[in-house]
Design brief:
The chain has 158 residues and is mostly helical. It contains 5 helices and no strands. Helix 3 runs antiparallel to helix 4. The protein is flat, with a radius of gyration of 25 Å.
Length: 158
Amino acid sequence: MKKTVLAILIASLLLLGISEVFAQRGKRNNQTGQEKIVNLLKLTDTQLVKFKEIRFTNQESMIDMQANLKKYKLEITKYMDGNDVSKSNLIALTDKASNLHSTMKNSRINMWFEVYNILDADQKILWKKHFRQMGNKQKGMKKQRKGRNCNKGFNRFN
């Protein structure tokens, strides 16, 4: 009886120790994406102020555009639920949403270049390298979602 209790106690202590090691491994890097890139680039105080200003301005405009995009999608859904659906009206509504998507992508590119223009030569190399890697991660994430029904809203018509 004592040997069984002792074996169970030792096994649970081992499991607890192993789980603690894995928990510590996950806690090592709690930085956000912004903190990681700021630390990677080693921005000066002036650059950091400009970086934050660019980022906040971009976030503010993105919030507005995302809200408008949701409104367009709702408008399309509402229009499709109606009795009088015409091809030209539906195309006009989807063109508005497509133009907004294009504007959002252009805004991201503009932000990228605004940040790029405040960096020195070494920082520019790191900035480009970091975002090449980010692009590859996003492609991988899209591949993982492929085949799943992740699309919502207007995308159901594709």
